[in-house]
Amino acid sequence: MSKHPVDENCIFCKIVAGTIPSACVYEDEEVYAFLDVNPISRGHVLVVPRGHYRTLLNLPAGTGEALVSAMRVVAGALMEHCGCGGFNCISNNFSPAGQLVFHSHWHVVPRFDGDGLSAWPGGKYKDDTEMRQLAESIKERAAPARRRNL
Ligand code: AMP
Ligand code: ZN
Known about the structure:
With 150 residues, this protein is α+β, with helices and mostly antiparallel strands. It has one domain (11-124): HIT-like (HIT family, subunit A). The chain has three helices and five strands, in the order H-E-E-E-H-E-E-H. It starts with 10 loop residues before the first helix and ends with a helix. 21% of the residues are buried.
C-alpha cells in the first residue's frame, strides 16, 4: 500500500504505480519523472510527485522541495546529454492556465538555439502607481500564506 495519496482515476497516479507504461528518466521516494508523450521539444520531461495532489496549491511543503531538487537533476542531465543550451520549467495550474491533468506536475522543456519556440508576449502597466498598488495587494494576501509555511 502506497504511503502517498492516490486517485485511482488519475493517469499520472497510474503511471507512478506502473499500471500505465512510461519512459522514466528519474525517480526517488517522492518524485517520478518521465518523457512527455507529446513533447514540445526533444527530451521534454514531466516531473510529478508520487502522491496525488491536484495543483501546486495542494502540495505539502516538503514535496515542493523534492520536486525542485528533482527538476535540477533532470535539467542537468538534459543539458549534459540532450545537447540543449537551456530549459524552461513550467507548471500549468487550473484550467485557465491550461492544466489538463489534475495531478500537479512540472514540465522541463529543453531549449535549443533557434528552436523557434516563441516567448510569451510582455504587457505593460498603465503607470508606476498601478504596479505598486497591485504589488501591495498581492503582498497582503501572500503574508498569511508565508506564516502557514505554504
Ligand atoms: P498539462 O496538464 O496541460 O500541464 O499537460 C499534461 C501533459 O501530460 C501533456 O503535455 C501531455 O502530453 C502529457 N501526458 C498525458 N498523458 C501522458 C502519458 N500517458 N505519458 C506521458 N505524457 C502524458
Ligand atoms: Zn494522480
